[in-house]
Amino acid sequence: KKLNDVLKKIPPNIDARLRLTLVCYGEDRITTEFLTHWEPLNPELDRFQKEGVAVTIAPFKKHSSSPLRYFKTTCFLENSLVLKRARHRGFYEAIFLNERNEITEGCISNIFFMKNEHEILTPSLKTGLLPGITRQMVIKLLKEMGFCVKETSISLHDLTHFQGAFLTNAVVEVLPVTKMDTVQYFPWLGCKKVLAAYRELVKRESCLLVKI
Predict the structure, then answer these.
(1) Is residue 63 within 8 Å of 185, Cβ to Cβ?
(2) Which pTM does this prediction carry?
């Protein structure tokens, strides 16, 4: 009921995102509550998806052995502060390294790199990242499209050997990266095809959920 109520408040003529949060209280007797929040999407998102965005490396690292690394929680202050700092400096996103100087993930996204026309790399779960649902869907999609996708260790030294990069999350979907600090990339033309295929996949998955 709460979800339906908030959906009715979203104007039908705008693109928006809806966040549903499960909050648990207490120790011996656990009480749960659902919180909802919606906001309009960034009006520049379409332009970002066409032209790409610049990202930077976060000023401090995350440890791969953190017990929270596999969970999406409301303990988001660290990411929020880093993202705010990056946006203030003109970057769209900041990418974290772990204690081994391996690339992990962004504050609000996962990252993929094009090694060549057929091979795409993305940081493995062993680096200490949140295995986002969109990340999993994009990996599945890329394999269906004939790409060889490898989840592996990626260092800063590897960045100059890639042909391009892109970010993923449920809001931006597939977003090309044109710059990582001093490393320049051309927007990968394949991003348009991946974005279109991702939207079609989401549409198919949504239809299956409705039927169920």
Answers:
(1) no
(2) 0.81
